[in-house]
């Protein structure tokens, strides 16, 4: 039998193939870009900026690649949730290419000229709007009674469109504060709800037996519980309220989440390859609890007049929680839909461990004195995670299914 070769035409075989390939490409580009920026700065070769670097980094890493993964996931799983025929990947090709081209223009524009970045942002926003309208049409066509997840995801996607349009306006006006607001809106009202909703769909697969009390709460109460902690943290990040008002609720939410993780671990230990995927999901959940705990501690320190923990809570949340969940869920989808075992092998587990190292290095950079070296090493670790995942699992997207079945 002749060996099967990677073929880009196979990316049109299923929505997850196309969306994940676009997401992996953009994620790799941005990881290497940020590593190059930090390395150049360490060598005294600071690049020029048309947009403040902190705002540029936040915008690109929040909205620049994760929506493509979301599109691949939702246009694959969504029709099944809604009891509709599958979506052909070629329907998504033009909007995803528009989305990707827009973000490449933004990447160049943050260095060369803010109008170029604004043009790219508008292009990406229109591409995402087209995907939003396509999924809205699926939701309208469905007649199944249980559409809670799809409706919530559609609402979150609308906030993603709003965040991208606000970012475009901020880039046109050269308003760094408004650009930060757009990034915050995109993170807390778009990216985070979609991740929580996707994880919630996986509870019956990986955690129902281990977390019977969570399962017994019912669908709506589960979502309120899982969204409550991130909502408190998002509110804390805006600094609208006195620190003392949010510190205690965040601490209680952190304790509840970490207790849930410990209960899950005792009931379902990570034994062998089959236990690694639940362990990766559980690890992401643990980072969520730790991020809330760090945010509570930071607010408590501020309440007594001492400096907070800076960017440590935010990066524990984004790189730790969101990063772990993205790697775990994307790996599961790619493996399952390529006809391969969903158990995490040695390579996948090493990628996960490298990500944990990257998170710890990023926290060390935020908390320790002279964190420039740790920051560069954290960026190197993240680039390694992205490159390894793309070369291993992204490569599978252009191969036929290992079991010989059609997509």
**Element-by-element helix/strand order:** HHHHHHHHHHHHHH
Summarize the amount of helix as a percent range.
over 70%
Structural domain tally:
2
Oligomeric description of these chains? single chain
The span between the termini is 21 Å
Largest sheet: none
* Average residue pLDDT: 90
**Topology, number of strands:** 0
> What structural class do helix, strand and pairing data support?
mainly alpha
How many DSSP helices? Answer: 14
Q: Beta-strand level of the residues, as a percent range?
A: under 5%
Pfam families: NnrS
Transmembrane segments: 20-46, 58-77, 89-110, 116-139, 151-172, 187-211, 223-240, 246-264, 285-304, 316-335, 373-391
InterPro entries: NnrS
Keywords: Membrane, Transmembrane, Transmembrane helix
Keywords:
14 helices; NnrS; 407 residues; mainly alpha
How does this model look, in words?
It is a single chain. By secondary structure, the protein is an all-alpha fold. It folds into two domains: 17-206; 212-407, no CATH class. 77% of the residues lie in helices and 0% in strands. The chain has 14 helices and no strands. The chain has helices at 15-42, 53-63, 66-81, 90-112, 114-141, 148-173, 176-206, 212-216, 219-238, 243-267, 276-303, 312-337, 346-367, 372-396. The longest helix is centred in the middle third of the chain and has 31 residues, at 176-206.
